[in-house]
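Dear colleague,

Thank you for sharing your sequence with our group. We've completed the structure prediction you requested, and as agreed, I am returning the results in plain text so they can be pasted directly into your records. Please verify that the sequence below matches your submission; if there's any discrepancy, let me know and we will rerun it promptly.
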Amino acid sequence: MLALAALSLITLGVFAQDAAPAAGSEPLIRASGTVNYVMLGLAVVQVVLILAMSGILRSMMGSAGWMRKLTERRSAAVLVPLFLLLSGTVQAQAYTAPETTMSHQELFYLLLVVNLFLFIVLMVQINLLRGTMRAITGVFEEARGEAAPVPQGPTVMQRVMNALTRRPSAEKEQDLLLHHDYDGIRELDNVLPPWWVWLFYGTIAWSVLYLVNMHVVKSWPLQHEEYTEAMDQAKADIAAYMATTAAAVDENTVTVTADATALAGAKASFTQYCAACHGADAAGSETSVGPNLTDAYWIHGGGVKEIFRTIKYGVPEKGMISWKSQLKPTEIQALASYILSLKGTGPATQKAPQGDLWKEEGAAPADSTAAAPADTVRVAGL
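Please find the predicted structure tokens below.
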């Protein structure tokens, strides 16, 4: 009875969790809606029985006269008041729909764990009821003048400890003494404790289960497979996060992108929005409104941040509108990167340089013999 009660206490902290499905593995039991209804009905029946047993035990514990006598007995029944607390915590709760839909298989495993827990509680209550009945019968016999049987032998706790350790009695220790001593210390030839032996057997069983599932059936992923899956999932999570924050790019955080798809879209955007002023090749001409975007001279800066700012806010006083209401931040980033990729591609008919020679921070000093811009008059555009 003590072992069952202790087991029931341990199970109070058990929470059911969904096992991660292994790739390509089939469940041992394929659940369906009918099976889950049966499992749910079984759980309800066990809850009803547990509540009924709880009421019976409470009613039987109401007699203070034999209760006082019961606590004085050195038997297993002394543990009854302690474990009656188990029945007081069993309550039926209304079902709350989960946030996500649970599959039939997951619901089956959850109901299986619940039914096992309820079965253990029910068995403990039945055992407690039997012990209580025996104790009450003994008290009533004493009240009628009949001597209650005196318990013989070891107590329940002693029997449990003896079963767990296989400790020999004091009378047999002489037979187990080994014929040697160390500084007066004698050694007994005791057997290994059963709990240790079964734990050792458990490790062997687990090793066989591990070997079969990992290397034979391969229903469990190997460590490097788990690592690869975890890294792939992390990359997917990072990509999803970056997709949600990509629209937050601005002139302070923008960087040059080399994504081919983004640059292809930027080329189409340039043809649609920018070619009218800067030419189809972005090099302009002597009659174009916008400046040449393929040389090293820039009016409002030639870095990716400066070009991004110019496209985003425009130059209203020179006739260039702001494009932030028509283009997304990521599209402006791609357009600025595309313009930078056109450096040095201007044909012979390109427009003369305008503005100042642009030099990135940290770059080598420009050649002092380089030709000065032919026309320093700033016109509308970049």
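Summary note from our side: Residues 260-357 form a domain with the Cytochrome Bc1 Complex; Chain D, domain 2 fold (CATH 1.10.760.10).

Kind regards,
the structure core
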